[in-house]
Amino acid sequence: MTGHGIVAYACHLPRHRLRHADLGAALGVRSGSGSRVAASFDEDSTTLGVEAARRVLTGPPGAVFFATTSPAYLDKTNAAALHAALGLGRDGLAVDLAGSARSGTGALLAAAAAGGLAVLADVRTGLPGSADERGGADGAAAFLFGRPDEAIAEIAARVSVTAEFLDRWRLPGEAASRRWEDRFGLESYLPLVTEAGRRALKEAGVTEPDHVVVTSPNPLVARRASALFPARVPAGRLPGHAGAADAGLALAEVLDRAAPGESVLLLAAADGCDALVLRVTGRITHGRQARPLAAQLAAGRDVPYATYLTWRGLLEREPPRRPEPDLPAAPPSARSQAWKFAFTGSRCGRCAFAHLPPARVCKGCGAVDAMEPLPLSATRGTVVTFTADRLAYSPSPPLIDVVVDFDGGGRYTMELADASPAEVAIGMRVEPTFRRLYTAGGTHNYFWKVRPVEEER
User: Fold this and answer.
1) Coiled coil where (predicted)?
2) pTM score, two decimals?
3) Cβ atoms 155, 277 nearer than 8 A
């Protein structure tokens, strides 16, 4: 049906986990077993989107469509920061689709129609003790659409229906969504899901889909709709509702398991319903993401409930007794965009000395303006020394500084994320991760940190 198919995909789940048992014990409520995926204090929808997107790109995608319900900025294009962090230069369209969970499928359909990259990312916040807090999830997924002869999955049909009713909403400036009674939303959604799903299957010529995925902010919809469209292959495990990223995470989980020739019915019910029927091609065998969603979901490190609430701004605690960082200035940020956003250093073309940050004059041989770009965002390194600084300003102290020797050359002092002082060690393998260092004066200061390499921990 469309001239573009999915040629690559990847998802990213933050490493922190909030255990339901800890949540229940703190609030004195029944919360069940398991845990929710939680973004760290230095992660937002933009940084999560970068982590997913950089795993699928091998060159400029043409256009970037970024979907989220939790934009880091309003009245500013968040996709522009993502575009810069991916090192895409100036060419191409980068645009936000924001405001509701339906933005996720909007980005998918836009990228499928025009070709390009769809990035779906969200940080979901619920009030303490709410179903959104317990059943939400933070995460991101990215899908690159390209030529049909290179596709791992083709879109065979798509149907969209829309209706206006009040099921979930959030006023500007509010931290968490409001919800009407779930049964009301179920009665409104089921006819829409039924219509969109049946029409899409008929258009695709599919009688019984192999995989069926239903996503919705209303938990009752997914349960009931799954019974309306039975699948041949049982559904996999998902992290919880992830807002605009939910449909992307669900689709990524299916592509992790689907066999060549199988069909996928994706039903995304949010302020209507978008139904997509996809056919998996033989290229899926070599086109799956390197680290499946199930493996990412099984990993993780626990975070205390009080710390989680502080990260989300729902528990106000005494700040560090240190001067807060200065407001990031626009001119130097613009001048150093390749370094600040894309983590690109320089290498001397004469003696091969690596410079971090980039320099005009070589420290090795003294050559002037003989540098070549040295991209490092995908380069791992080794910790050669470290310190845990309990005096420096940090929203989540202590701040751990590590000196990293990058593979292939280059040494730099960076902040270590997703680890405690007890976990860091000389010789630890680390990899760059795009994070928000701090926010001052309403301006986010983005840069790169390093985190432990998961498979080598």
Assistant:
1) none
2) 0.95
3) yes
